[in-house]
Structure formats: structure tokens, C-alpha cells
Amino acid sequence: MGDRFTKKDLMRKKIALTNGHFPQGDRRRADESIAKRLLGMPGVTGARVVCSYVSLPDEVDTKKIITVLLTQKKTVVVPKIVREGAMGLYSIGSLDDLTPGVFDILEPKETCTEILPADVDLFIVPGIAFDRNGNRLGRGGGYYDRLLKNITVPIVALTYDFQVIAQVPHTSYDVPVTTIVTELKTIEISRGE
């Protein structure tokens, strides 16, 4: 069992090194391409309630995406760590409704309204690496896997093309994504149900 976690840790370090050398101009162009691809997807255009992470500097930028979704009059929901190992979901009306939270990640303020995961039409999630089977390597806390455990709606990963790799180590607890959007392609994954 320890060997699998070692593989995940090594993979995180390798991807982080590559990501650290990704030129800012290329990153900005990739972010724009990913946003355009995502916002044109039928699952996104048809969704009324969209849950999106708020990006860290080394992740695909979601702040512009969130702003566009809000201008489209969608309900935008953002995760917030409510206790160790668990996230809640809260609707925001603008980026001003966010404040630094746990791990310095922007989270909804206390005044935001809680939304149940079952009320979300589509989830947008981050990750360190993904494979073509939808397996996702996160930062290691398992927060998204617990949040998405019983979700049947689309789960869309935003990532840079170099983060799509041959195989991501995974367990039965890991929740795969249904779509991967990079600056170069959109990968639809069959859930095989």
C-alpha cells in the first residue's frame, strides 16, 4: 500500500516541476483556450448550477470562467473546507464573495448560502494529473473524492495538456472525472455503467 502512495508523491513532484517551468505567456494562452472549450460545451451551456474550484497560481485559471458563468445568470457554487476532510458548497454572486481560507485557497465567505451537492448540474475540478480513463491525481487530501462520491452529473477536469499522462495510480475510493479539457483537446470518458 505504501508503494502506491510513493508513486503518487513522485508523480506530484514530477508534474509540479514541469508546471513550474511552464512560461507565463503560454499558461495565459492555454487558460484562454481551455476557458473557450469549456464554456462552449453543451453540458456547461445547459447547466443552471455549476460548481467550480477557485484556481491556485499553478492551476488552470477559473476566475474568468466563474465571472462568465455569473454573467450568464448561472448559479455558481464554490467548495469550502468546513472541517478536516470535508468540503461544503456555497453559492457566490461575484468574486468579491471569496476570502482566503484553509491552505490560502479562496473560499466563499460565511454569508454565502450553502448548496447541496445533489443540486449541482456540473462540477469543474482541479487536479495534478489525469489519465484517459478519467483517473485524477489530486493534492492528496481526498476532499474532492469524498465530495463527489455519489455524484452522477458530469465532472469536468481543467488541466494543461502535459498533465494528461498514460496512467494515474488510483484506488476504489478515487472518483474519476467524465471529461478532461486541455488547451489542445477535450477528452470524453465513458463511465462504463
Labels describing this entry:
193 residues, alpha/beta, Rossmann fold, eight-stranded mixed sheet, two-stranded antiparallel ribbon, 5 helices, 12 strands, 24% strand
Give the helix/strand layout.
Layout: H1 2-20, H2 24-39, H3 42-45, E1 49-52, H4 63-71, E2 75-83, E3 86-92, E4 98-100, E5 106-108, E6 114-115, E7 122-125, E8 129-130, E9 136-137, H5 143-147, E10 155-158, E11 179-181, E12 186-188
Parallel strand pairs: 1-2, 1-7, 7-10, 10-11
Antiparallel strand pairs: 2-3, 3-6, 4-5, 8-9, 11-12
Question: How would you explain this protein's 3D organization?
Answer:
This protein is an alpha/beta fold. It has helices at 2-20, 24-39, 42-45, 63-71, 143-147, and strands spanning 49-52, 75-83, 86-92, 98-100, 106-108, 114-115, 122-125, 129-130, 136-137, 155-158, 179-181, 186-188. The chain has a single domain (2-188), classed as 3-Layer(aba) Sandwich (Rossmann fold). It contains five helices and twelve strands. The strands form three sheets. An eight-stranded mixed sheet has the order 6-3-2-1-7-10-11-12. It has a two-stranded antiparallel ribbon with strand order 4-5. The longest helix has 19 residues, at 2-20. It is globular and about 40 Å long. The chain starts with a helix and ends in a 5-residue tail after the last strand.
**H/E element string?**
HHHEHEEEEEEEEHEEE
Count of folded domains: 1
Beta-strand content estimate: 15-25%
| Largest beta sheet: strand ordering | 6-3-2-1-7-10-11-12
Distance between the termini: 28 Å
Q: Which percent bin holds the helix content?
A: 25-40%
SS element count, helices: 5
**Helix and strand composition category:** alpha/beta
CATH architecture: 3-Layer(aba) Sandwich
Low-pLDDT runs of 5+ residues are none
Note the overall shape: globular
Task: Provide the residue-averaged pLDDT.
Answer: 92
> Radius of gyration from the CA trace?
16 Å
CATH superfamily: NagB/RpiA/CoA transferase-like
Q: Largest sheet, if any?
A: 8 strands, mixed
CATH topology: Rossmann fold
Identify the quaternary structure here.
Answer: single chain
